Amino acid sequence: MATLRMGLIGLGMMGRHHARVIRELEGVELVAVADTYADPYGVARDLPLLRSVEELIAAGLDMAVAAVPTGMHEEVGLALAGAGVHTLVEKPIAASAPAGKRLVDAFAAAGLVGAVGHIERFNPALQSLRQRIANGELGEVYQISTSRQGPFPARIADVGVVKDLGTHDIDLTAWLAQSGYESVFAQTTTRSGRIHEDMVSVTGKLQNGVITNHLVNWLSPKKERLTVVTGEKGAFVANTVTADLTFYENGLVATQWDSIGAFRGVSEGNVTRLAIAKPEPLRTEHEAFRDAVLGIRNDVVTLVEGQSTLIVAEAVLESARSGSVIRIAD
User: Is the pTM of this model over 0.85?
Assistant: First the structure.
């Protein structure tokens, strides 16, 4: 395998994890790191700390990771595209849909691999779940609901909970169902004293008829990352914190004890916690990015997909502002 020269810009909380994984990745060498402000986690080690994307590019790169704040994604991404560097940009693709479109166009025009770091797609529980849905283990899918709740992260300052966390759920839902969104209706609130929303409740419908529900906030003391897919044969529950996947099978055995039946439903079905391999999602994401650059496979989250997710996120915010159902343009 050829050794690819990789650069990293943005050395904050997520950047340090990217650096760790890159240094362990076969066929890739981390040759340059940059951050305009500082290196609080000592990511650079023996590498010089560069201060700009231009200095990073000058190091001679094949590929790069942009883990800068969302508001800088467009500027940094366009510079890397202009320099012919394949790039993985952290999610969301950009701060706004027009900015995202400019990134999509720039990488397409340059013939470069552009990817978005929607890491949940690489969670082993969700990867197994998607394959099981595709194999028909759930039969027809009726609903996908997600809950992504926890305390406020000090690392986020330039976007609200919809674009920072909610984009995870929008992306993984469309990916699991293999269908885009048709419409959304949302309500938000701001309780932490910041200018951006910190809680959202979204209901939606996909183009294939699956209904969706998303609860996302930065206000809960309890961290929760759950995806529930309900269908013809039962329900899968994926916990992406622990990468556990459980199948609740529709029952065929009637409950005969009336008082228990009132709590458990009309029948008893098997509950199976599935045994799955659990590689680190970030490593899997980087392997996919490396292999896409090498032309071996192409299962990254593309910039086009990242742009579609951002468009839905902006529709969620518009719905909350207007109090209306927002239909998503094709």
Answer: yes
